[in-house]
Write the structure tokens for this entry.
Amino acid sequence: MSVADVDERVFEELQALEAIFSPDIIIKWEDGVPKGIEMNVLPSTCDKSDEQYVRLTLEIYLSPDYPESSPKVIMRNPRGLDDRILSCIQTDIEDKLIDNIGHLIVYELIEMVRECLTQCNLPRGQCAICLHGFVKGDIFIKTPCFHYFHSQCLSKHCIAGKKYYDEEFEKLPMWQRMEAKPHQQTCPVCRSTVQFNVDDLKKAPPPVESIDAQPFHLTDEIKAMQERMAALMAHQIARGGVIGVGDSEPPPLIITDPTDQQQPKSSSSGTQNPRPETSSSVRGMGNSASGAPASPTRPPYRGPYRGFNRRGKPGRRGRGGSR
């Protein structure tokens, strides 16, 4: 398909879209031919970005003979929207495409999706911390990465994270404390760095649903889920996964080099003297492992390294090698 084959109205539509939605819209070209449009659609809140609680990315792929045939429309990266709402938006898009074959439709599609998001500008689903939903009267907060939490729940998460950091920090020798990175608040879902005033979050009331919630009891459904999770944990442990219940510190590392895999040589007396494995427990708060020069009694480190964070963040070896 060449530029000459593209309907002149398409170029006029794209110019208008860039003028209206720039810089939020991206138009994809190939050899001068428009292939698709991508745009992050947000609800209309009079430019009050802190009140935009939902969003999605709209991808529109133009057919070779558009507008005589319908473009392909895909919704990606929804935030704060449940499957029911997404299904309704998808149905509205399909109906609009069918009713407007032969007409330029991209602008109307974007505005229709924006209107739907404006009407549903309240996060759906559950708070990932307390597992209660969001209802009218809840005080909640949106992170820059578009994840949602009750304000009081997030305050508890931030306080617990700081407490854990301080406890682990006190276990480090002085030289590692000097190299340790300061504590940073993170999103409980995606671990992106965030920054909140914990004192303000603590002032929020508890989730509305938690006030009248029934006492927890173990159901058959929960028991079945526990069995599935136990089987998954056993599989991860069998494959070498660093997980466990109640670990007080990282497990020891087994450090080997290629010579450890060779068959031991026989001595003159006919006995074998296999080279023993060297194990070491290494802790640190740095960013990467560095290989120290080999010594006659200790081979260089060649395996994976687990540092200060017990969940597997990389660390740096201590001074003087592993211990």
The chain has eight helices and eight strands. The beta strands are 25-30, 33-41, 55-61, 72-79, 140-142, 148-150, 253-255, 278-280. Residues 233 and 243 are 8 Å apart (CA to CA). Residues 250-255, 263-296, 305-323 have pLDDT under 50 and may be disordered.
